[in-house]
């Protein structure tokens, strides 16, 4: 199968939308009561935080800080525990800071979580990448590029650094002439030569816009009689191969078993909830033959399960 299914317009396929009749002060007060009462009222916290868009949640955070001189995330951390605490804190964290922290976590300690690096860096827009890099520096006083450089190597490192730079073209216009030219470059860099010119793959796949790449992949099939996906698998290997395949799919999730890895599950549910979680649900069902909703139900429990199911939206 080729890459025809992906490239959906960012933003229109989420499960969470702006809440109508939104009032940050009303929400901040209700959250304060839910936290400060005898025992925590988790139901109220879940209802408010899963039914507001991230932009609205940031306004609640600001209002809460102004009214109670307390950071909402600190109060949530102090009052909740386990997976529920992690996802609630994730929901009130600005997206760029959330991604920066996820990237740091994926490079911390022994071994690197390459899948997390690939997933974040291949699915964020150039503007988002610039914001993430800025947030990363603000939080850790280190550049994201330096950390990627010290944790990865070779062509994989080169491609990650290109993506982290946030230089992918964001235009929705497509250039047919360029698509033909790039398709030929990819063919000459792989199938049509002895050995592979990895830099050319990085250049085209990490810098062109997604609509442009879609056209390039169509042209590639005309020249080569093969899907680019098959060529990447045949010509490349390791994490570099995974990364380029993920760019091709642009919905790069390790579907199998995602339900039991809370770290991955929280990141995807929170970061994609307003962008393309409907597409992810569709892909999940195709890969696993059961719905994401039912996977969450069988793999999680309690208030954490309730929160995830609300973000996930209706069962397919």
TrEMBL record:
Molecular function in Gene Ontology: calcium ion binding; calcium-dependent phospholipid binding; phosphatidylserine binding; phospholipase inhibitor activity
Cellular component annotations (GO), alphabetically ordered: cytoplasm; nucleus; plasma membrane; vesicle membrane
UniProt xrefs under Pfam families: Annexin (PF00191)
Keywords assigned by UniProt, alphabetized: Annexin, Calcium, Calcium/phospholipid-binding, Repeat
Domains (record comment): A pair of annexin repeats may form one binding site for calcium and phospholipid.
Family note: Belongs to the annexin family.
This protein's name: Annexin
Organism: Jaculus jaculus (Lesser Egyptian jerboa)
């Amino acid at each position: 199968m080729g890459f025809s299914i992906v490239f959906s317009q960012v933003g229109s396929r989420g499960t969470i939308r702006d809440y109508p009749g939104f009032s940050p002060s009303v929400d901040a007060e209700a959250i304060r009561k839910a936290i400060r009462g005898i025992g925590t009222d988790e139901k109220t916290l879940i209802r408010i935080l899963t039914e507001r868009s991230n932009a609205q949640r940031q306004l609640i955070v600001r209002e809460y800080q102004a009214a109670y001189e307390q950071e909402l995330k600190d109060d949530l951390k102090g009052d909740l525990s386990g997976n529920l605490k992690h996802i609630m804190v994730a929901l009130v964290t600005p997206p760029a800071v959330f991604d920066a922290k996820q990237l740091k976590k994926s490079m911390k300690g022994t071994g690197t979580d390459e899948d997390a690096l690939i997933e974040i860096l291949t699915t964020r827009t150039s503007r988002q990448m610039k914001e993430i890099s800025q947030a990363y520096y603000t939080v850790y006083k280190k550049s994201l590029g330096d950390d990627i450089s010290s944790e990865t190597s070779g062509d994989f490192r080169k491609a990650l650094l290109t993506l982290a730079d946030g230089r992918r073209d964001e235009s929705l216009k497509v250039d047919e002439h360029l698509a033909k030219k790039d398709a030929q470059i990819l063919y000459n860099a792989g199938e049509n030569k002895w050995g592979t010119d990895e830099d050319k793959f990085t250049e085209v796949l990490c810098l062109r816009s997604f609509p442009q790449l879609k056209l390039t992949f169509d042209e590639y099939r005309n020249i080569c009689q093969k899907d680019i996906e098959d060529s990447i698998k045949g010509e490349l290997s390791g994490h570099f191969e995974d990364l380029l395949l993920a760019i091709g799919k642009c919905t790069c999730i390790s579907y199998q078993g995602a339900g039991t890895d809370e770290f991955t599950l929280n990141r995807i549910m929170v970061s994609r909830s307003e962008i393309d979680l409907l597409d992810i649900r569709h892909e999940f069902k195709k890969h696993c033959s059961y719905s994401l909703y039912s996977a969450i139900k069988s793999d999680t429990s309690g208030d954490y399960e309730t929160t995830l199911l609300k973000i996930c939206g209706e069962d397919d």
